[in-house]
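Budget justification aside, the reviewers requested a transparent look at the raw inputs and outputs of the sequence design task funded under Objective 1. We therefore reproduce one unedited record. The lines immediately below are the structure tokens for a 333-residue chain.
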């Protein structure tokens, strides 16, 4: 649903010219303006810090009246039933533990060590979204060489699905994302595309936390990391809800030196590693899925997906395989 282009002008001090500047800067609605950083608004509009804070304060007041609403639980249930769609993974067992697949209007995170199938799950979901929901998809690549269009075409062709790379898939390459700050700019570019009316049903960020891992080194930068994570998650939550998107993040994991903490991680995540980003990041995801390769021989091997945490489903695990067709049940040919 595109944003009302006139609503920004309702904020104090925002005329048509300023509204257009904000939209070009990736702030397309009152709710985004209300949570924007003063430094960001100051830079976009070239105004004083005091003026930027005044504009944001005005947007917050308006957002309370226009954006925030109270409903009965039944109204919420009816809204969810009408709005939320599920994107199949390609494996019935995998879909079973997810309640039917990856839901729209929610952030879902796949975490695990390298070569545990996170990117392949993204590719399978992209094909399923195009086929089952009839909506376009977007892929934000933060690790060079991760997005391989030929692999997506191969998977789709073997499933009898036609993919038009020139129309169905939007991509931002890793060469454009060198830091968490540039990664945030990628969200703003995506927001502009959505605001223009492009119907994107699935966004995959692969991987979400790799640039944070490179940028925020040392315990003395934990506060800065958490603040930047909060800004990213806030933006993604806004896009997810406003446009009914299935927001899929892949997350790198980090080693844990303490043996006691390793045991805790093994019980929690099914591995002696933990997703990089801390508890704030873990709280921000609606579904957290841990991925592991459990058998490599005979080919194509076998993987385990564990639904570690969910806002609406119990903890559960599923076995699947990754073949030339993508994600499949282990008994499929």
């Amino acid at each position: 649903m595109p944003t009302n282009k006139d609503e920004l002008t309702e904020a104090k001090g925002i005329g048509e010219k300023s509204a257009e500047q904000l939209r070009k800067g990736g702030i397309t609605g009152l709710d985004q303006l209300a949570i924007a950083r003063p430094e960001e608004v100051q830079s976009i509009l070239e105004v004083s810090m005091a003026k930027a804070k005044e504009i944001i304060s005005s947007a917050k007041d308006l957002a309370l009246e226009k954006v925030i609403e109270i409903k009965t639980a039944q109204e919420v249930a009816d809204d969810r039933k009408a709005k939320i769609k599920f994107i199949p993974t390609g494996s019935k067992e995998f879909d079973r533990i997810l309640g039917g697949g990856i839901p729209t209007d929610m952030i879902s995170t796949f975490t695990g060590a390298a070569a545990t199938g996170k990117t392949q799950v993204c590719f399978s979901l992209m094909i399923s979204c195009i086929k089952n929901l009839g909506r376009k998809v977007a892929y934000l690549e933060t690790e060079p060489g991760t997005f391989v269009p030929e692999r997506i075409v191969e998977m789709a062709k073997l499933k009898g699905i036609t993919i038009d790379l020139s129309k169905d898939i939007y991509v931002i390459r890793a060469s454009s994302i060198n830091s968490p700050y540039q990664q945030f700019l990628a969200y703003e570019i995506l927001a502009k595309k959505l605001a223009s009316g492009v119907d994107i049903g699935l966004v995959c960020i692969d991987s979400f936390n790799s640039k944070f891992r490179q940028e925020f080194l040392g315990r003395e930068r934990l506060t800065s990391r958490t603040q930047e994570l909060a800004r990213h998650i806030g933006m993604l939550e806004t896009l997810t809800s406003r446009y009914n998107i299935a927001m899929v993040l892949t997350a790198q994991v980090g080693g844990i030196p303490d043996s006691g903490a390793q045991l805790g991680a093994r019980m929690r995540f099914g591995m002696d590693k933990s997703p990089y980003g801390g508890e704030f990041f873990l709280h921000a995801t609606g579904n957290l899925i841990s991925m592991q390769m459990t058998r490599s021989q005979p080919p194509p091997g076998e993987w385990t997906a564990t639904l570690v945490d969910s806002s609406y489903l119990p903890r559960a695990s599923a076995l699947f395989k990754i073949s030339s067709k993508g994600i499949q049940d282990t008994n499929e040919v």
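The mean pLDDT is 89. The chain is about 45% helix and 20% strand. Computational costs for records of this kind are itemized in the attached budget.
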